[in-house]
């Protein structure tokens, strides 16, 4: 099972790379969906394992909730939001794709070095998974600053959140269930609020290009 | 009693949708905040006799000791003052009958906001605390963007994006902490309860805790407005309606700082010294005070200026928490309390000024003392208080912080601190004082009065002046036992 989880954590990292390589909003929503599906698989595996060895159902239930929320509901929400505000396809990034990929690779190397210098109680699998999932967090952050559209920032935030969740799942086998559920509720509310704000921004600024949000400075 | 704390705000925000009468809306809000204040007072009385109040319900998530009682008390106190002030403020702002919906929305969002902050201050489960802090952002986003203008929408967007990302980083810190307790306590059920982690602090892995602390400092530091993660703060505070600015600055920042304090005590106990965390906190603190002092000089908008002054004071608190001696901790709790009340007062008086002159531009307001004698003088005295002049309470806590720095061997830090707050004083005096003097310009737009609001700001002024001279015994007890809780001694 450990190898399977290791594999999934690498795949989640790769899906983050796929995300930075996408050009259109629809395709990065799909990339996010793929990543969430991988996260669901990881949680599902842990859930089955926990159920068979310890008899706890909570991670299993959590994985179902993740599937419904992150694989089905939130991508649909994003698509709806996008369809209602978009009227033309524009170039959407500040940094071109090859350099973004290089920067992301550099981020992975940075994470690798900063975590491997940590000696202590960490076993090799956990270190490996931490490197992958923390890199996803950093790539999510980078994605947020490299895109111009408000929806790009939402997707970046979601990816960052996926990385966070992966860290919790693969290093500590999930937080206490109430915390996990609370996080998902918070996330759902956050995405809905961000979606509503995107509508409002689109109404007042006639665009969801965040470059136009520059009245407040200094 | 605890159940009351949680239910009053929830009940309140539901009740608002059952009525359409302006009067009853105001009445519900004020009564609710007053009841909340009473509930917290009874908790404080209970705390005088026992060290912590713990409810075995729900895996002992609910836990109140002097440290969170302090945060809780400032939250509901400022909440009550803001509720009373809002009556007149909203009546002046939304006069039409069709605006009732706006008032409803405003009230239900503010009570949801208060609810999330009460939750932050009453749970000891660090995971739940994180969820509640994230929820404070979500509850207040629409309050920041309440006026629906381009500027306020921009502020709201920045606020939700920057704070959510920051808080997400803090969550990584909590994951690391949980993970280290998972590793250290093989066999035992790992827990995120603060009292348990604090007890076990010495067996946690120091290397992992160090990483965890950085994540938490950056994460909650974003929410507390520490430089360089502060960029959302001036926008949100200046664009939000004034009562909301008072809540954001007076209460929300404290809540975020409280999250850092809980972590700080675990990490310091585990590492055995405060050197590591101290350096980080002091560096961020000095950076915040210095940056804020410089930015204040360049401000043209008085609410934005007050927001930068909040960054300065959060920096002061971070610095004195970083020194981590009993004296400095005492001073920083005192400063938290003082800053909340003083800044709430300032934002509320700024709200009066804004309603009268309809502008936030410092340059176009003159002779405030003549045109608005009461608000003007409170605003002027408050400005002096926030800049750190005696006899106000901020002066006494700042002098305590400086003393604590010098007596514990941080003499360079102490000198830099004094220099920087002097700089901040000069910037505030230079930019803001010109509003008060001179002749008022002839065109005065409106003559609305907010009598209750004026009573509130006067009451706050009296409080911050009195606590500058004399600290009541129960306040001193709370600060002292909070200090003991953080140091573990």
Overview of the molecule:
Chain A has one domain (2-86, 95-212). Chain A contains seven helices and no strands. Chain A has helices at residues 2-20, 25-54, 58-85, 97-116, 124-146, 150-172, 177-205. In chain A, helix 1 packs antiparallel against helix 2, helix 1 packs antiparallel against helix 6 (150-172) and helix 2 (25-54) packs antiparallel against helix 3. Chain B contains 20 helices and two strands. Chain B has a two-stranded antiparallel ribbon. Chain B is globular. The chains are: A mainly alpha (218), B mainly alpha (489). The interface between A and B is large, with 43 and 53 residues.
| N to C succession of SSEs of chain B | HHEHEHHHHHHHHHHHHHHHHH
- Distance between the amino and carboxyl termini of chain A: 53 Å
How many structural domains in the coordinates of chain B? 1
Gross morphology of chain A is globular
List keywords for this structure.
heterodimer, A: 218 residues, mainly alpha, 7 helices, 0% strand, globular, B: 489 residues, two-stranded antiparallel sheet, 2 strands, 78% helix, 1% strand
Question: Quick gist of this model?
Answer:
The complex is a heterodimer of chains A (218) and B (489). By secondary structure, chain A is an all-alpha fold.
């Amino acid at each position: 099972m450990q190898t399977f989880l290791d594999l999934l954590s690498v795949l989640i990292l790769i899906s983050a790379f796929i995300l930075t390589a996408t050009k259109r909003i629809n395709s990065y929503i799909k990339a996010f969906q793929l990543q969430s599906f991988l996260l669901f698989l990881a949680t599902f595996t842990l859930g089955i394992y926990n159920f068979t060895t310890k008899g706890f159902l909570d991670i299993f239930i959590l994985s179902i909730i993740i599937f419904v929320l992150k694989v089905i509901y939130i991508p649909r929400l994003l698509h709806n939001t996008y369809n209602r505000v978009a009227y033309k396809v524009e170039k959407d990034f500040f940094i071109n794709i090859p350099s973004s990929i290089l920067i992301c690779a550099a981020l992975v190397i940075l994470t690798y070095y900063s975590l491997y210098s940590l000696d202590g109680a960490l076993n090799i699998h956990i270190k490996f998974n931490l490197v992958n999932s923390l890199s996803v967090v950093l790539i999510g952050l980078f994605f947020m600053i490299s895109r111009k559209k408000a929806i790009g920032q939402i997707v970046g935030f979601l990816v960052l959140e996926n990385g966070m969740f992966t860290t919790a799942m693969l290093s500590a086998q999930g937080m206490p269930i109430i915390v996990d559920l609370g996080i998902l509720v918070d996330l759902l509310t956050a995405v809905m609020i961000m979606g509503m704000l995107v509508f409002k921004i689109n109404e007042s600024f006639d665009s969801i290009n965040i470059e136009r949000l520059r009245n407040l400075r200094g | 009693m605890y159940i009351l704390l949680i239910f009053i705000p929830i009940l309140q925000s539901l009740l608002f949708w059952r009525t359409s009468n302006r009067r009853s809306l105001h009445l519900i809000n004020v009564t609710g905040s007053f009841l909340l204040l009473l509930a917290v007072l009874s908790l404080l009385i209970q705390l005088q006799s026992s060290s912590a109040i713990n409810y075995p319900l729900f895996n002992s998530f609910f836990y109140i000791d002097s440290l969170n009682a302090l945060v809780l008390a400032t939250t509901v106190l400022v909440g009550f003052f803001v509720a009373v002030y809002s009556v007149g403020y909203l009546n002046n702002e939304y006069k039409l009958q069709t605006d009732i919906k706006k008032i409803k929305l405003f009230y239900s969002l503010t009570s949801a906001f208060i609810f999330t902050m009460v939750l932050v201050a009453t749970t000891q489960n660090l995971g739940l605390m994180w969820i509640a802090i994230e929820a404070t952002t979500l509850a207040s986003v629409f309050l920041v963007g309440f006026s629906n203008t381009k500027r306020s929408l921009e502020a709201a967007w920045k606020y939700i994006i920057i704070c959510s990302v920051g808080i997400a980083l803090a969550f990584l810190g909590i994951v690391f902490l949980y993970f280290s307790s998972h590793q250290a306590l093989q066999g035992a059920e790992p827990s995120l309860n603060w009292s348990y982690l604090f007890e076990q602090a010495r067996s946690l892995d120091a290397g992992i805790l160090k990483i965890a602390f950085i994540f938490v400092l950056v994460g909650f530091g974003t929410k507390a407005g520490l430089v360089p993660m502060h960029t959302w703060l001036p926008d949100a505070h200046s664009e939000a309606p004034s009562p909301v600015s008072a809540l954001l600055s007076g209460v929300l920042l404290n809540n975020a700082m409280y999250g850092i304090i809980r972590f700080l005590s675990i990490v310091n106990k585990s590492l055995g010294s405060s050197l590591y965390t101290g350096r980080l906190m002091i560096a961020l603190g000095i950076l915040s005070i210095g940056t804020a002092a410089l930015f204040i000089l360049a401000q043209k908008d008085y609410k934005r200026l007050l927001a930068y002054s909040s960054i300065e004071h959060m920096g002061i608190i971070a610095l004195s928490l970083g020194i981590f001696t009993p004296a400095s901790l005492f001073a920083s709790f005192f400063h938290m309390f003082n800053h909340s009340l003083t800044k709430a007062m300032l934002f509320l008086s700024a709200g009066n000024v804004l309603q009268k002159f309809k502008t936030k531009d410092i340059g176009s307001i003159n002779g405030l003392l003549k045109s608005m004698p009461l608000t003007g003088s409170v605003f002027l005295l408050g400005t002096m208080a926030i800049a750190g002049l005696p006899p106000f309470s901020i002066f006494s806590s700042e002098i305590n912080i400086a003393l604590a720095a010098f007596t514990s061997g941080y003499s360079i830090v102490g000198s830099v601190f004094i220099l920087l707050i002097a700089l901040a004083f000069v910037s505030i005096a230079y930019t803001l004082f010109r509003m008060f003097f001179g002749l008022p310009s002839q065109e005065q737009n409106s003559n609305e009065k907010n009598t209750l609001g004026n009573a509130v700001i006067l009451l706050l002024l009296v409080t911050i002046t009195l606590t500058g001279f004399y600290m009541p015994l129960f306040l001193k007890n709370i600060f002292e036992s909070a200090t003991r809780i953080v140091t573990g001694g």
